[in-house]
């Protein structure tokens, strides 16, 4: 963007004067969020204010590899370097789409925001603002408690999110006309370039299954994109190359001695960085859904258990067949039906015999 909008100039002046510790930047896809963050960071660094960028956009990355949330305290030379920049701290989400991964996005953004020690932290977010994006941004605002929200809008599309936070300082900025829209292929190409740069210098490591802790378990298949951790923080990415009877083969730039935990993701990626397939979010194995009958309660104190009820005796002329169904007895073969008893015809009244 050659010309900086006047609204951006005014916004960065507000940030400079008020010094908010956490600035949450919201907006849809291709609204200028990343460019705004680097513009503000450039102005703050020029004035000697240390500034951190917390990149919670898991698809189009500025800090850290795709599928992660990245945190970095920016240096002046970072402003001219190719992106994504290396992350000083990261959190593995496991996918490039927020849908199906709202909880790790909220948790990861909160954890990294607490780790930031910079006076001002700019928090960039995903472009999902409708449907499940309303819940995502709402819970991110609640968990982060930002000191300032910068919202980029075209037609008040962020109102379902912001109306519930009118008590917080909010700067609503128009989307600049100069912002260029990126199509799906361009976005995918950028992600593949980021994967390729990240996995440069990686090696294949073999781990016995007994030595690794598996988190977010799912079926282990080749090309599964995973995160690795030392038990205290997430360290980076690893590609599952092969599953053997002895263990796993991982391709990762993370040193072997630091890896203790394998975190399963929701994507298949083939080297050097080709996205093969997005999987549904992994779910922990659920307990058996078989119905269990409750045991009969023991007899109460001072009383005996109730006796079992006796089966009802069928009425005369009825018999029980093998299936347990009662029915009127059929006449036996060769037997004659008994003659009906003498009496008045059906429907007539019996006459009283005369007195003698």
Automatic annotation (TrEMBL):
Q: Enumerate the residue ranges of region (Disordered).
A: 279-356
Please state every residue range assigned to the domain named Clp1 P-loop. 27-201
Feature: compositional bias, Low complexity? 330-340
Question: What Gene3D superfamilies does the record point to?
Answer: P-loop containing nucleotide triphosphate hydrolases
Q: Which residues form a coiled coil?
A: none
By its UniProt entry, which PANTHER family does this protein fall under? Answer: CLEAVAGE/POLYADENYLATION FACTOR IA SUBUNIT CLP1P, POLYNUCLEOTIDE 5'-HYDROXYL-KINASE NOL9
Q: Name one GO biological process term.
A: RNA processing
Q: What is the lineage of its organism?
A: Bacteria, Pseudomonadati, Thermodesulfobacteriota, Thermodesulfobacteria, Thermodesulfobacteriales
**Protein's recorded name:** Clp1 P-loop domain-containing protein
Say yes or no: keyword Nucleotide-binding present: yes
Which Pfam families does UniProt cross-reference here? Answer: CLP1_P
- Sorted UniProt keywords: ATP-binding, Kinase, Nucleotide-binding, Transferase
Biased composition of type Basic residues is found at 305-322
Molecular function via GO = ATP binding; polynucleotide 5'-hydroxyl-kinase activity
- Species this protein is from: Thermodesulfatator atlanticus
Entries under InterPro entries matching the protein:
Clp1/Grc3, CLP1_P, P-loop_NTPase
């Amino acid at each position: 963007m050659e010309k900086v909008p006047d609204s951006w100039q005014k916004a960065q002046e507000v940030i400079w004067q008020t010094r908010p510790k956490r600035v949450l930047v919201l907006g849809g896809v291709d609204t200028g969020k990343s460019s705004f963050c680097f513009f503000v960071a450039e102005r703050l660094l020029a004035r000697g204010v240390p500034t951190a960028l917390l990149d919670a956009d898991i698809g189009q990355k500025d800090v850290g590899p795709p599928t992660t949330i990245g945190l970095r305290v920016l240096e002046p030379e970072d402003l001219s370097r190719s992106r994504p920049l290396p992350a000083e701290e990261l959190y593995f989400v496991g996918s490039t789409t927020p849908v199906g991964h709202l909880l790790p996005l909220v948790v990861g953004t909160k954890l990294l925001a607490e780790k930031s020690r910079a006076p001002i932290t700019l928090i960039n977010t995903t472009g999902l603002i409708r449907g499940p994006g309303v819940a995502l941004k709402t819970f991110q605002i609640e968990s982060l408690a930002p000191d300032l929200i910068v919202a980029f809008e075209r037609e008040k599309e962020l109102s379902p999110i912001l109306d519930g936070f009118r008590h917080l300082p909010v700067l609503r900025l128009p989307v600049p006309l100069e912002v260029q829209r990126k199509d799906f292929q361009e976005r995918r190409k950028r992600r593949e370039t980021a994967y390729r740069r990240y996995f440069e210098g990686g090696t294949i490591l073999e781990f016995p299954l007994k030595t690794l802790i598996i988190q977010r378990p799912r079926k282990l298949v080749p090309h599964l994109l995973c995160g690795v951790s030392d038990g205290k923080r997430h360290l980076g990415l690893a590609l599952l190359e092969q599953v053997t009877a002895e263990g796993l083969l991982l391709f990762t730039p993370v040193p072997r001695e630091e890896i203790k935990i394998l975190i399963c993701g929701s994507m298949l990626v083939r080297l050097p960085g080709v996205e093969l397939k997005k999987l549904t979010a992994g779910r922990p194995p659920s307990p058996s859904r078989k119905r269990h009958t409750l045991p009969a309660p023991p007899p109460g104190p001072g009383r005996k258990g109730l006796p079992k009820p006796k089966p009802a005796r069928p009425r005369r002329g009825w018999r029980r067949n093998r299936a347990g169904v009662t029915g009127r007895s059929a006449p036996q073969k060769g037997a004659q039906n008994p003659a009906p008893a003498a009496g008045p015809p059906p429907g007539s009244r019996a006459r009283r015999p005369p007195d003698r």
